[in-house]
Amino acid sequence: MSGSALYETFARAPLAFDHGEGTWLVTEKGERYLDFAGGIAVNSLGHGHPHLVAALTEQASKLWHVSNLYEIPGQARLGERLADATFADKVFFTNSGAEALECAIKTARRYHFVKGHPERFRIITFEGAFHGRTLATIAAGGQYKYLEGFGPKVDGFDQVPFDDMEAAEKAITPETAAILIEPVQGEGGIRPVPTQSLKKLRQLCEQHGLLLIYDEVQCGIGRTGKLFAYEWSGVAPDIMAIAKGIGGGFPMGACLATNEAAVGMTAGVHGTTFGGNPLAMAVGNAVLDVVLEDGFLQDVQRKALLLKQGLAAISDEFPEVIEGIRGTGLMLGLKCAMPNGKVNMALRDQHLLTVPAGDNVIRLLPPLTVTDAEIHEALERIRAGAKGLAAEIAAAAN
Q1: Is residue 160 part of a domain?
Q2: Residue 132 belongs to a domain with what CATH number?
Q3: Is residue 10 in some structural domain?
Q4: Are 92 and 202 in a shared domain?
Q5: Which among 89, 211, 278, 308 has most CB atoms closer than 10 A?
Q6: Which of 291, 314, 345 is the last residue of a domain?
Q7: Is 369 contained in some domain?
Q8: Number of domains the chain is built from
Q9: How many CB atoms within 10 Å of residue 391?
Q10: Which residue segment(s) compose the domain that 178 sits in?
Q11: What does each of the 398 residues of the chain score in pLDDT, given as a tens digit?
Q12: What CATH number has the domain bearing residue 346?
């Protein structure tokens, strides 16, 4: 056998990490990297957070898996806490964001089925969206690069341009069941949806008897400075998919819904083997312990402002490299004036880890526990990377 035994579906950076400490990752050779990728917004409380480690190890010594054939006390507790902190009444636990979205899609379709309208199964989505890698979620995202080569696109998704409320309204038919949107697009290039647009979607849903679904897989769990991004607009959904940050690095997700929206999700219509297992529930509850502490989210907002102001100054200084800053909370994007892959590489050379996104953007997704000193350190590294790239551009021009 030649080469690696792994599927070649990832273009991995030539880096392997041995351990992590808060906002830092350390390679097998002992090189330290400042982690502003956060496992793509997953490591919400950084690496090796003592409260999460304690919760996981304590649970691991007691019980790992029993399946959903039995009651799981940690699941009931985490479900209640999520419902108490949000619009939701009901929660279904999954292992990933894609599974949470699948559950959200099925919940919306099933709602109309039990209401006597099985013909209402179509969902309106928005260009630039990323909802996962299953056959249904790549169809919902609608991006050709993820759909190509996997046979006929799963039916039931009607895509309209990003933030085009007129197009969304025109796309509504007697077969429409729901509207699905990320309050802040992550993969699509850190694009927040304006509050007025979310209000318009809510109004359209009320008017046409549709369900409003939010995908907060990337922007949820404190990432924007509130527990969920929709809280900034005050426009609540009927169904919401979450994942990433809620597990702090442990694989887990959830689908949240109102009692009304979840009316069709009765015994036997949906399931999961691993979803809601005791290990995941111990960690999810530990994450909420920290994120819901008094003052924690206010501090995220304060640190976000510090980072955003620093980035704006670098953008002003090197507009030939970074043409603008976008995003909210600790979910920020550098809109690049040159290929974002080149900027990402320059930052990695400065031992700063970031994540490329659509629309030629670099994502900055540090742990919510990042310190002021680490923000200043990251800004210094970004400035050094931008300065080097600007010098390259100047040299090429001469």
Answers
A1: yes
A2: 3.40.640.10
A3: no
A4: yes
A5: 211
A6: 291
A7: yes
A8: 2
A9: 11
A10: 63-291
A11: 567 999 999 999 999 999 999 999 999 999 999 999 999 999 999 999 999 999 999 999 999 999 999 999 999 999 999 999 999 999 999 999 999 999 999 999 999 999 999 999 999 999 999 999 999 999 999 999 999 999 999 999 999 999 999 999 999 999 999 999 999 999 999 999 999 999 999 999 999 999 999 999 999 999 999 999 999 999 999 999 999 999 999 999 999 999 999 999 999 999 999 999 999 999 999 999 999 999 999 999 999 999 999 999 999 999 999 999 999 999 999 999 999 999 999 999 999 999 999 999 999 999 999 999 999 999 999 999 999 999 999 999 88
A12: 3.90.1150.10
Q: What is the pTM of this model?
A: 0.97
**157 and 192 inside one domain:** yes
The helix-helix angle for 50-60 and 278-291 (nearest 10°) equals: 160
- 252: which 2 tokens? 């887990």
Find the angle CA(185)-CA(39)-CA(59) to the nearest 5 degrees. Answer: 115
Say how far apart CA 129 and CA 358 lie, in whole Å: 10
Q: Token digits for 373?
A: 């000193």
Considering the domain boundaries, does residue 125 fall inside one?
yes
Question: Strands across the sheet with 17-21, in order?
Answer: 17-21, 24-27, 32-35, 352-353
Q: Are 171 and 165 in contact (CB under 8 A)?
A: no
The amino acid sitting at 47 is H
